[in-house]
Amino acid sequence: MKIKFSDNFLFGTATAAHQIEGDNKWNDWWYYEQVGKLPYKSGKACNHWELYRDDIELMAELGYNAYRFSIEWSRIFPEEGKFNEEAFNRYREIIELLLEKGITPSVTLHHFTSPLWFMRKGGFAKEENLKYWEQYVDKAADLLKGVKLVATFNEPMVYVMMGYLTAYWPPFWGDAEKAFTVEANILRAHRIAHELLSGKFEVGIVKSLPLIRPLSPASAEVAREVDNLQNWYFLDAVFSGELKTPFGTVRTGEGDADFIGVNYYTLHLIGNVDPVEGLYRYDFGGYGRTQMGWKICPEGIYAVLKEASRYERPIYVTENGIATLNDAERIDFIARHLYHVARALRDGVDVRGYFYWSLMDNYEWDKGFEPKFGLVEVGANFRRIPRESARFYGTVTRERRLELNHGEEPTP
Ligand code: NOJ
User: What is the pLDDT of residues 114-132, one digit of tens each?
Assistant: First the structure.
């Protein structure tokens, strides 16, 4: 069967600063990598900080018309009040090169990492620290000229859960009640950034939205609450200004988002646990298929896109991807997910773009360099080696259509 995408649909790839740039020495992740609290060091990562020209050239050659990346707050402000002009100019150059090549930039302001100096003051756990965030956003307004899409935060709930609830990631807290305080302050930070930047840019939020379903009918109610806690209460609060948490409702202030970015990878099945526990205790349906252990569930993207359309804002699939050593599996993954994106479009969901995670293999946080998400392999001396999937995706983006050989996918 054939699928057709409109001419203005964005087809891009996604990356994040700490995962590709290398030598991001001024943030909290780098610090915990050095002191041995994290199992892997990012080091030079993909050396993108030096190879950015080649990488942009490569994207253009492959035929992608959009690119999502993040700017690193700690490079721009390595110390409190100290502005790094060189970093600012480098990001400017990246944006200008992308525009020159006809690649639409989509920029994330916060993708998991924060300046170490900011974290030492308590980071997002303290509302009074939002003044530092505001200074950064103010600078970003100059930096981002010409950019269309700006996302304030990447996956705020994953950030909160990993860093403050399970304590697997910096800053290794592990306190449920405080985790929801951080969530509330991130909502306030989003509101501040939206107020400062909207009008000049389309300012949205990028949310991880796994498909969350009960393991059996007996856990239907718990699964619904986990789904709300992880997927929807944050987004509801962006607009309503009221954040529902297991510890009561917190007033964060009414705001807006000009678009919603959806990061979709997998399905979480929830058993009979406490809903807060359900945030990190779930099942992948008996087996995991990717290098991350995640189940491949293409039809889930249709379901979450439909559910996210309740906010009546344009939607971008800001991440979707697979870690695998089998590139044929990646091609199949992309085709199947695009099929379900097309179904959502056909059913009236306002999806405006799709960004594959990731352009190239990179530093997968606490999993290091093992998981291979890239369309492009990073070989010895950082050599970029496009895989078959990179070409396949290039053909899709150029022709704006796709043929599926395996017939209809199941409907969730
Ligand atoms: C979501 C995150 O935004 C990104 O940083 C990460 O590498 C991918 N998922 C894959 O796990």
Answer: 999 999 999 999 999 999 9
Residue linked to tokens 């807290």: 173
Per-residue pLDDT at 299: 95
Mutate to test the pocket of ligand 1, among 357, 361, 364, 369 (most ligand atoms within 8 A of CB): 357
Q: Which two tokens stand for residue 66?
A: 């959009």
Minimum CA distance residue for ligand 1 atom 5: 16
311-325 pLDDT, tens digit each: 999 999 999 999 999
Domain extents in the chain = 2-403
Question: 207 forms bridges with which residues in the sheet?
Answer: 262
Of the chain, the percentage scoring pLDDT greater than 90 comes to 95
For residue 359, report the distance from its CA to the centre of ligand 1, in Å: 12
Which backbone phi and psi does 289 adopt, to 5 degrees? -110, -15
pLDDT for res 338 = 97
Number of H helices, E strands in the chain: 15, 16
- Alpha carbon dihedral 148, 242, 174, 163, in 10-degree steps, equals 0
Find the residues whose C-beta lies inside 6 A of ligand 1.
16, 19, 154-155, 263, 319, 357, 364
Q: Are 29 and 361 in contact (CB under 8 A)?
A: no
- Stretch 49-61: mean pLDDT, rounded? 98
Which ligand 1 atom minimizes the distance to the CA of 323? 10
For the whole model, what pTM was predicted?
0.97
Q: Separation of 346 CA from ligand 1 center, angstroms?
A: 28
Residues 232, 210: Cα–Cα separation, whole Å: 11
Let me know if domain 2-403 sits in CATH 3.20.20.80: yes
**Nearest Cα to Cα of residue 267 among 225, 305, 296, 238:** 296
Alpha-carbon distance of 279 to 274, in angstroms, equals 9
The atom number, within ligand 1, closest to the CA of 367 reads: 11
Query: Tell me, what amino acid is at 404?
Result: L
Start-to-end Cα distance in the chain = 19
Ligand 1 pocket, mutate which of 69, 365, 367 (most atoms under 8 A from CB): 365
Model pLDDT for residues 194-224, shown as the tens digit of each residue = 999 999 999 999 999 999 999 999 999 999 9
Ligand 1 center–CA 1 separation, angstroms: 31
11-53 pLDDT, tens digit each = 999 999 999 999 999 999 999 999 999 999 999 999 999 999 9
